[in-house]
Each structure stands twice: as C-alpha cells, then as structure tokens.
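As a representative case, the lines below give one protein's residues and fold tokens.
***
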Amino acid sequence: MRVRGRGPRTAQPLPLPDELARWYVFVQGLGACVAVAVEDACTPDGSPRDYMRVAPVAMVVQAGWTVRDGVIFSPLPYAEYPDGIEYDEEAVRASGGTPLPDESP
C-alpha cells in the first residue's frame, strides 16, 4: 500500500479526535487511517510499537481506544495473517477508502 502524508488532496472525511491526530496517515485504498497497537495482539513482555498497524479512522472510533505512553491502543478485530487487522468495508468507505474486491472464485 502506498502511504501519503496529509495535505489538501488527502483531506480526512471524518472528524479526527485530537488524541488520534498524531498518528494520522492516509493510505490509498484504506483512506484516512491512524496507527494503533492492536490490544489482542500485544504481549505483556513486548513493545506495543511492535504490534502497531494502520486502521481506518472509522474502525478505531467505533471500536474505541485508549492512550498509554503516547501510543494508541484499540481492540480491533485481529487475525494471524500479513496485515493482522480484519478491515470493515463500511469503515473503509466512511474513511474515504475503496475496499478491494473479493478475489475468491
């Protein structure tokens, strides 16, 4: 995925809470996102930064979040595959992204 910084062409479609603004990124395909540590993936002895992923703003707002030591934690749905987060299509659209088509036969 290509990541672009904020700018006039990447205006974020949802209001962005101040706590999330530091972690804002625009990801082509996912839209307005924030970097979060996925709570269910974090281990007690690991660094939360090792478990950070980008997720659409709408998903994080819906799931809720907390801030610990400057890192955003969210109980997003997590799966053991490369991206780790199970993206919600409606949240991707609400964040200005375009979900990938289902590639199953």
